[in-house]
Write a structure and sequence with these properties.
This protein is α/β, with parallel strands linked by helices and 221 residues long. It has one domain: Spore Coat Polysaccharide Biosynthesis Protein SpsA, Chain A. The strands form 2 sheets. Strands 1, 4, 5, 6, 7, 8, 9 and 10 form an 8-stranded mixed sheet that branches. Strands 2-3 form a two-stranded antiparallel sheet. A hairpin with a 2-residue loop joins strand 7 and strand 8. Helix 3 packs antiparallel against helix 5.
């Protein structure tokens, strides 16, 4: 691989899952597989490698949850500094030109939307979707170097948020009418509580393939 070619899929999984009762939501089963497995399964058709950002104490459990797929694990040198620092850590761990970024708690996001964001980001600094009238910072696609610079700019302001990264990145904002062509609002469900987990379980059950195979299982064929 030559530097600055291809696309990385970045999964942000370093949060403490406090609203989930302290259990690491990334490894909680949904439809018979860990939540993070659904996210990686959506990324695999779109990217050339997967980078998972996490705290040091999560690494072994996340590798086990994603086995047998090999992923690059970008461990935060200092835990609990927030998603912006985690995103920067992950972006620094790849030599790909582009990155598609997804949080670990959005198991319903479709590959088709991620592919569209990647396409829209090719001739810009990045691309983010409009959902229910608001610009969402994730999922997103971005040029890796621009993303690192935007994260650093946001960190320099103190107490950075992902919205600050979007401001610094100045990406293409994909209109909602275009987003709806690839995903309905349920695709953006954040599974950060047990109640949201139940909704995701029901949604996945309704949309499961006739052969019952998960996205991650199909992606490892």
């Amino acid at each position: 691989m030559k530097p600055d070619t291809g696309c990385a899929g970045v999964v942000l999984a370093g949060g403490r899952s406090r609203r989930f009762g302290g259990t690491d939501k990334a490894t909680v089963p949904i439809g018979g597989m860990p939540m993070i497995g659904h996210v990686v399964g959506a990324l695999v058709p779109v990217v050339d490698e997967v980078v998972v950002n996490c705290r040091p104490d999560q690494e072994s459990a996340l590798r086990a949850a994603l086995s047998p797929r090999e992923v690059t694990v970008a461990v935060d040198p200092i835990a609990d500094r927030g998603p912006v620092v985690g995103l920067r850590t992950a972006l620094r761990a790849t030599e790909r030109a582009l990155a598609v970024v997804v949080p670990c708690d959005t198991p319903l996001v479709p590959s088709s939307l991620l592919a569209h964001l990647r396409t829209r980001a090719r001739h810009a600094s990045g691309a983010v979707p409009t959902v229910e009238g608001s610009v969402r910072p994730l999922p997103a696609a971005m040029h890796v170097r621009a993303g690192v610079a935007a994260c650093s700019e946001a960190v320099g302001r103190g107490q950075p948020t992902l919205d600050d990264v979007v401001t610094a990145l100045s990406p293409v904002v994909v209109p909602e009418r275009d987003v709806r062509a690839y995903a309905d609002p349920t695709a953006f469900l954040d599974v950060d509580t047990p109640a949201a987990l139940a909704v995701a379980e029901a949604t996945l059950a309704r949309s499961s393939d006739a052969d019952g195979r998960s996205r991650l299982e199909r992606s490892t064929d």
